[in-house]
Amino acid sequence: MGNAAKYLAGATVEPLSSDYTLTLDQSALAKGLAKITVTKPQAMQARRAMRTGVQDTDYNYVSELGYLIITIPANAASDSELKCTVTQGSYTVADGTETGTTYTFSGTEKVVPMTASYQLTCEQAIAGMPAELTVTDADGKPISRAVIYQVNSDGSQKLGSTNMKGTFTKTFDTAGEYTFYAEKAGSGRSWNQRVIVCERTAENDGKPFGISPTA
Length: 215
Prior knowledge:
The protein is mainly beta and 215 residues long. Helices cover 4% and strands 41% of the residues.
């Protein structure tokens, strides 16, 4: 996925618990960078205890602090991957001095395959004949009441919803290439699916013919 600034537009952060506060630098987003500052509320600062004249500090280390939430573009391809790298980071440890000790770190590139909640398929489409668009989940189960949209140059047009079998029937007037997607409120959407509609033949009223079963 290129153009990081485009995908980071409108990004937000969400902490996993109230123990930490996450702040996202909005000015860095325009440069294609997600700069996140993590702080711990004063009431949750590491406890200090005095033992035999030596100051001991109790630290709690966690591997996950929260989420960076971005918007995946609607026209992303089904084989898209999200690539991200922690180019630079730092943290400060309280050690009894006025400013503490600051350490820096970086990370290697991470590749995250992107998935869609639903799959939209169309086995065969011939101009002038009914074609079925089918919506299923990751386990192949049909999804009813999923709304089917057709993508046009000026936006998306709502066509209708799938039935209990997860299908929606549409008759194409002309041959060509069309793009659709399925969406169900509150539960996700499918990738954009390209459908090739073939010309209807003059023979046998456009229906397949000359097919013989084989053993």
